[in-house]
Amino acid sequence: MEVERKRVEFLYLTQEEVKKNLPSQEEIIKIMEDVFIAHTQGEAILPPKFPLDLEHIYGGHLNIMPGYLGDIDVAGIKLITAYLDNLEKGLPSAMAMVNLYKSSTGEPLAIMEGGLITLLRTGAVSGVAAKYLASENAKILGVVGGGAVAPYHIYSVAEVIDLDEVRIIDINKERAQKVAEKVSQELGIKVVCKDTYQEVAEGADIIITATRMEKPKPLVKNEWVKDGALVMGTGQAFELDYKIPRRANKIIVDNLEQCKKIPMGWGFSVLFRDKVIDWSDIYAELGEVILDENKRRKSDKEVIVLWPRGMGTEDVATGYYIYKNALKKGLGTKLSLF
Q1: Global confidence as pTM
Q2: Which CATH class is domain 133-310?
Q3: Residue numbers annotated as active site
């Protein structure tokens, strides 16, 4: 007996609709914690992030980032582009979509703009790391890079740390100044734009690098990094002096297996290519740090380096929150697949 084929619909959410359904800073940090815990407890599936490299043709690439989370039983994939010259064409340097699927049947649940999701969850990972790995008396945050993600790093760290001062620098000083003014007004904390990388890093308790550098260049030098600092090389992590990971008491990653499968020459992988560190030098994954107090900071003198490569499961979890919120509010457009 032939079963009548069901009508399959999914929810489409524009960037504006995604914006109306975003989690709060407190909520997104908790969502990211749950993602890391799911990985540590074996409740997540994360195929390697796969780049479709078009750098040699158009100076850009497309990252394909699938993932499944058993705790919420949802599968999904984020597609995100990176074209550094797009700003000159009136386009964002990164554009993204997050697709969610019912894991038991493969039915599409939602397709949504993924740029805001990427910014929010990327910043939230820094908040999670600061919560569990920053020194007890951390007060000063230094940020290298004033791009779109910079405010989100600051928002999340400020959510878990009572900051006295944030320092920021960018090759475009006007851009850094705009971030400083915006975040200072929103959070009511001191945010200052600096002229040199040394001024940003020296004496900072937490250092975050968030640039779009294409090859290693030590913007943050080892001698500027104080004992007890937490150093987070987000994105490519090309900005860190090689002596910093060599000196680190602990090196933490988001997902070790994914990190091992990154194409050689991309991001943190240059440290292994150039034999700065070995895979045995990786101390723990962030999920282990959350679940096991013994994996956290042992003293206020330890230098800890975090390399969060970024995981598709982070986008799936954030997207699922937005999807559920949109359904409750009746937002978005229902589209029919067939």
Answers
A1: 0.94
A2: alpha beta
A3: 78
Helix, strand, coil abundance in the chain, percent, nearest 5: 40, 25, 35
- In whole angstroms, give the CA distance from residue 209 to residue 306: 11
What fold is seen in the domain 9-117+313-336?
A: ornithine cyclodeaminase, domain 1 (3.30.1780)
pLDDT digit string, tens, across residues 115-142: 999 999 999 999 999 999 999 999 999 9
Q: What is the C-alpha to C-alpha distance for residues 33 and 129, in angstroms, rounded to an integer? A: 10
Region 26-32: what's the mean pLDDT?
98
Q: List the domain boundaries for the chain.
A: 9-117+313-336, 133-310
Tokens of 154: 């600051």
pLDDT, tens digit, 9 for 90 and up, residues 60-85: 999 999 999 999 999 999 999 999 89
User: How many Å apart are CA 271 and CA 216, to the nearest integer?
Assistant: 10
Rounded CA separation 130/301 (Å):
15
Write the pLDDT tens digit of every residue in 180-204.
999 999 999 999 999 999 999 999 9
62-to-121, 138, 222 alpha-carbon distances in Å: 19, 37, 33
Question: Which are the contacts of 98, defined by CB distance < 8 A and separation ≥ 6?
Answer: 76, 77, 78, 110, 111, 112, 113, 114, 117, 315, 316, 318, 319
